[in-house]
Amino acid sequence: MDYNIDTKGQTQSSQPGIEGIMDPAPIIIRENYRGSGKLQGKSALITGGDSGIGRAVAVHFAREGADVAIVYLEEDQDAEETKAMVEAEGKMCLLIPGDIRDEAFCKEAVTRVISEFGKLNVLVNNAAEQHPKEDVREITAEQLNNTFATNIYSFFYFTQAALPHLQEGDTIINTTSVTAYHGSPALLDYSSTKGAIVAYTRSLAVSLADKKIRVNAVAPGPIWTPLIPATFDSEKVEKFGKDTPLKRPGQPAEVAPSYVFLACEDASYMSGQVLHPNGGQIVNG
């Protein structure tokens, strides 16, 4: 399959961005991806599941047999499209809009999943925000608080709410980033949260080992999602991903199988680990 695209230097005016107006649209799942029941009978909650990587994870999970709940901020049209894609796989999709920086909302979201599906087997902490600043002195306290609240505090909130419902063999998967490993001078606060997610994943994995609940992470490189045109100017979007060894941005369809692997029994002896779909960047982590 040809994953090379022309990003056309397009931009969007606000985060987290709208997938429905992207051109070209991100590739969500390969036509030849064949599900084999790896998640049959499971239910999953995915934050940021309306678009991009989250949407791809939702559709792949559904093709593998899981019912899916997706949490998102306010992108209703994108969320409805994701729901349609999940339901086309013959599975249920619960839409839960709200602000994951709010601990009470995170608790209520988990409660709704349990009420709708009767169980929760896979928690995917995926949603994030980023706001480039060339100088650390430009990062306001408000931006710093919002970035940390979205990118790492919410992981704690959802884990705390989900844990009473998770059983032996269930899993938590966290989305970190290649920036946690090689840094990003214009994304200091974002990169810091992604480094925190790596430490959180490793520590939580050890903490939950006795319960036989596995905790792992995925560290994507430059992936073509709505967050990109909603974050960067046209010049950076035009060059996005071309500095990787593979000389192109990745697609959500190339990332989601990592989540399937970590969520299913294929990864039964893996916990505290990070997978790196990043276009060939060597990170030694």
UniProtKB/TrEMBL annotation:
Coiled coil: none annotated. It holds the Pfam family adh_short_C2. One of its GO terms (molecular function) is oxidoreductase activity, acting on CH-OH group of donors. Keywords: Oxidoreductase. It comes from the Bacteria. Transmembrane segments: none annotated. Residues 7-16 have a biased composition (Polar residues). Residues 1-21 are annotated as: Disordered. Belongs to the short-chain dehydrogenases/reductases (SDR) family. This is SDR family oxidoreductase. It comes from Dyadobacter chenwenxiniae.
